[in-house]
Amino acid sequence: MPQSPDCFLHSSVTPARRRPTLWMGVGLMLAAACIAPVSSSQAQDGAAVQADAPAALAEPRKEDQVVARLIAMLMPRNHISGEKLNDTISKRALELFVKSLDPMKLYFYQSDIDEFSKNETRIDDMLMNGDLSLGYDIFRRFIQRVDERVAVAQELLEGDFDFSKDETIVIDPDSAVYATNPAEARDRWRRQIKYALLDLKDEGKEGNEAVEQLQRRYGRYARRWKQTDGDDLLEMYLTAVTTGYDPHSTYMSPGTLEDFQIQMRLNLDGIGAQLREKDGVTVITRVIPGGAAAKHGKLKTDDVIVAVGQGDEGEMVDVVEMPLTDVVDKIRGKAGSTVRLGVKPGGVGNVEIYKIVRARIELEESAARGEVIEHKNPDTGEQLKIGYINLPSFYLDMESAKKDKTDFRSSTRDVRRILNGFNEQGVDGVVLDLSKNGGGSLTEAINLTGLFIDRGPVVQVKNSDGSVQQYADEESGTTWDGPLIVMTSKFSASASEIFAGAIKDYGRGIVVGDPTTHGKGTVQTLMDLGRQLFRTQRENYGALKVTLQQFYLPDGQSTQRNGVPADVVLPSITAKMDIGEGDLQYALEHDTVKAARHDIYSMVPPDLLGAIRQRSMKRVSEDEEFQDLLRHVASYVDQKEQNEVSLEEVAFFDRRKELDAQKEEEEEQVEAQIGSEKIYRDNFYNKEVLNIAHDYIDSLRKQNLAKAG
Questions:
Q1: Under a CB-based contact definition with an 8 Å cutoff, are residues 54 and 61 in contact?
Q2: Max alpha carbon distance in the chain (Å)?
Q3: Which end of the chain is least crowded, N or C, by CB within 10 Å?
Q4: Which among 324, 318, 239, 232 has a CA at the least distance from the CA of 276?
Q5: With the C-alpha atoms ordered 77, 81, 84, 90, is the resulting torsion angle positive or negative?
Q6: Are the CB atoms for 362 and 320 separated by under 8 Å?
């Protein structure tokens, strides 16, 4: 249901350089967690017979009609694409709205979809007239289908199930189809319940206990949908329209906007994790360095939260199929309080209980940290000093900076201090690890780039009117002019991509890691609709988060979708995860603008880079741990491509055991690549990064290119 902004443009500028202070991360942390921009669906299945939908949903309110017309006007006027609200957006909006209600195609009949599709090109015209009737009609039909399905579900739960029968269930939403008649719908639900019962048995719950839990779960699911009010429905419907433009443009209802503003004032108290809803379950998308979950150490990306309890002994509440905002409400809380999470590691296997003490994220633990490593070349035995910097985000104490305080914290200041220390210790090269860096302040990305280049354009920004501005490092000189290696992964996003891309375009250093970075090259602004209507915020009409700018590297390439390609690619599971910008529906396309004039350093000659790649590939091919990783990657891809699961009990649990073993190995591989709170973790992946760094430093020295200039 409610969405949360993930990227903002603030109106303030830094006095010295007049750059916009941009926040570009792929996720924005709330008090307990971050809600990544995803489908607004509440759940994937389950229901219970309840009363009719709330009377408040009988007809759209007048203020809703005003908001609809305003969104219809603001989106084409402000969106980076400049695209009008047209039939294409209308078709997408219908598809996205239906998917938000019924992602696994368990409720609607195909005939319902066919009926809705008769109006698929009318939503744009209706919205411009403030007409929301189609959204209300579709929602009423959905509630009707929920009632019908729950009657079947309750009846089926009273009967027996044959778990020796050789049959399967579709688990991939794209492969699922709508039922064409009541018999097909009943069979879909029979299989769905069998799967749920096997899943609960895997958790140690059988018989009446399992049946009663499903009855409660479906009942809660139906009640929550029927508690949907006008604000909730307006948010779902208008967000379906805005995400038809791109996945980061959303409408926030008055309640969601107020909640967001409250969370921003809470200063990140909570567990420090990013959450998203996926097919009815709550999934961890990122554990924030320095947060309570990171300190706890067990919560990982792709883990699924199935229950939440308060304090040391509070009841564990089942949150499967619960709206994401409600899950967040249960997880968040004051620093120092305890929350217990029922977690399925990787979404499979037994539920583990994690007791986490909520805390405020400490800057010291999420800030840049450095370490000097004595590295021995595995081939020659030569030893070099390599300075390793771990930078989890591009941070800036904006309030202190605005007040012109001299001691405000920023990523650039901290990295400069570390580099000065490296210079004093005589390091031979620097590795800057951005593999966990989801973005942050664009100003900081520009300033940080300036530590490694003399001066010049770092990023270009295209506005919704098509105009392009350049933002440059304007300070002469560098803090480090020696060999530079930038570590990236598919988690490296936004500001990280600007930095890594600028380093590549200037030929200033090499990028090592996943084939490409995340690929988010856009920025959003939050437009208060009350202010748009009345020039004041006297009325809360919610807000529009709209994508209004796109970013380009000095050479003119956008980071959108394509990200920044690595110069030297290392095997990884993260590269195969569906976590990139291109994995989002209707993500904006990659394009280019005119290249900006800038210096080209001679620190990445093509022949040198080719030789480094060959040596790395040879080492990887001879390393047992990398070969194990490649086998795990192949297994992960094979598993991800399966769209059905057997409901025969022996086969089901054999698959679960296999998945559990695979998941444990996958977690170890991801941990090796991007995990750990340590500055540098001495594992096979990082050792190869240092081997590459060593080769790079040696090669530059042999060609007398070891200094920028």
A1: no
A2: 79
A3: C
A4: 324
A5: negative
A6: no
Token digits of residue 10: 């603030």
Which pair of structure tokens corresponds to residue 71? 């969104």
Task: Return phi, psi of residue 538, to 5°.
Answer: -70, -25
Closest CA to 518 of 268, 328, 285: 285
Q: What number does CATH give the domain 269-360?
A: 2.30.42.10
- CA separation, residue 666 to residues 512, 526, 602, 631 (Å): 21, 38, 39, 10
Per-residue model confidence as pLDDT tens digits over 297-345:
889 888 999 999 999 989 999 998 787 878 988 998 888 999 999 999 8
Contacts of residue 390, defined as CB under 8 A and 6 or more positions apart, other chains included, come to 368, 369, 370, 433, 436, 679, 680
Tokens (6 digits) for 402: 């605005």
Q: Can you tell me the distance from the alpha carbon of 277 to that of 319, in angstroms, rounded to the nearest whole number?
A: 11
Q: Could you give the count of Cα atoms lying within 13 Å of 106 in the half-sphere of its Cβ?
A: 31
- Is this prediction's pTM over 0.90? no
- Render pLDDT for 104-138 as a digit per residue (tens, 0 to 9): 999 999 999 999 999 999 999 999 999 999 999 99
Helix and strand numbers, DSSP H then E, in the chain: 21, 24
Pairing of strands 484-488, 510-513: parallel
Residues ≥6 apart with Cβ < 8 Å to 474: 17, 450, 455
CA-based angle 672:35:561, to the nearest 5? 65
- Rounded CA-CA distance 212/218 in Å is 10
All CATH 2.30.42.10 domain ranges of the chain, comma separated, are 269-360
CB 134 within 8 Å of CB 123: yes
Catalytic (active-site) positions: 494, 505, 520
CA distance to 370, 386, 415, 452, 480, per residue, from 430 (Å): 10, 6, 11, 11, 8
For residue 617, what are the contacts with CB-CB under 8 A and spacing of at least 6? none
Give CA torsion, residues 341, 347, 352, 354, to 10 deg. Answer: -30
Nearest to 221 by CA among 1, 39, 2, 43: 43
Ranges of CATH 3.90.226.10 domains, the chain: 363-520+552-702
